[in-house]
Amino acid sequence: MATDVVVPTLGESITEATLGQWLKQPGEAVKADEPIASLETDKVAIEVNAPAAGVMAELVVKEGDTVNVGAVIARIDAGASAGSPAAPKVEDRSSVGQAEAAAKAPEAVAPVAPAEDAGSDDEGGPLTLSPAVRRLVLEHGLDPSQIKGTGKDGRLTKDDVLLAAKTAPAAPKPAPAAAAPAAASAPAATGGTRKEERVRMTRLRQTIASRLKESQNTTAMLTTYNDVDMGAVMEARNKYKDLFEKKHGIRLGFMSFFAKAAVLALKDVPSVNGAIEGDEIVYRDYADISVAVSAPAGLVVPVVRDADKLSFAGIEKTIADFGKRAKDGTLKLEEMKGGTFTISNGGVFGSLLSSPIINLGQSAVLGLHRIEERPVVRNGQIVARPMMYLALSYDHRLVDGREAVTFLVRIKEAIEDPTRLLIDL
To answer: Which residue among 242, 306, 400, 417 is the active-site one?
Structure first.
């Protein structure tokens, strides 16, 4: 009996998505609740799970097609097994698929390598890989069946693949799919050819581009800078990190110090925690801090709710969980909505200085950068200190220059003297 696979509810006000990747192909066995496809929405990638165990019988839509909530995207022959005579042959829907694709997507999308290429599990069936893991496997030319998985039920994680890539001998990258857009060639001045490749933007990347440009167009954005001596925080972290991890089960990082410092500064300068809505200013007495984290498909900004009420351990655990699930592509839409203030740490990528763009619906964003020893003057002597540049981009329509500078100074004072975080000063 054929069971329809439908597009699940994607979240409030989201009615459609793009079929990003099929994780299972016709004729392959699937287990109940096993991921079989990846959908891309405006914010995150969402996996579609099999409603029943059986064999993939038919793919109704193609990768790159736009699908609505509730639409049938595939069918599963429930109860059948791979190779069973009862398993139906895949219907040739090329004419239907071409008509649907022409109506929904003006450009052809390069299909992802078939699941057979991804190897097989211990039971002889094909491996199920998340989109991020599959992409890494193909990029490094690895055989996933030879990699030991440390995830749930032995599934491969991104870290497993990266570790295998470091230890494995260099392998040639797989050739692009035959249906991929042809790369344009142009003669080079030194002879030979130079190639260009056109790749369709993902829905997430399109949304990021649109929102960032909208933020620039709708805010009077200005950035003020300062630097901070990280010595006191680094000393406190080194002194208590082992006890902290032993008691709370999480490492003590720098983000919790900056989140706590931001909470204090937001109380002193409430306009930074506010927002303009129409001809009104909304002031909040709570701090929902958005934390920018890197995901395979782009930057995402989940929200640490009620950061003003969380302990250092609570903040560290929340941010660590966001980071892990961003890599796995399992963040929920509701976890990225709202937020009253943003912290973006470009320092983890080696950034020395930047001007971050304000998140829509907010009035300011704090940019953190790398820590490096620089000569500074202390008590008339030139000494080397671990310094970091801070950048605060703010909406000048709501936040005055004096308030922005005051806010950044409050951050600096709290980081250079962490005792202030304990006595609310």
So the answer is: 400
